[in-house]
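Quick note —
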Amino acid sequence: MRASHSVATWHRSTRCSSGACVEVAALGRSVLVRDAKENDGPKLAFASGAWMSFVATLKDGQLHS
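Predicted structure written out below.
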């Protein structure tokens, strides 16, 4: 059975001061991502392992704009 997005506990980075941030929630084996300004808006779902790899890449500074 798939868990409902409505029971997700959302978290925002402590570095977010403008409100123009994303929020994440762990839900089962997935990580959900949403726009902090649009609580009822669309959500992206990623496999937990893929999300952890993405965050590790960010922390390593491997992504450049």
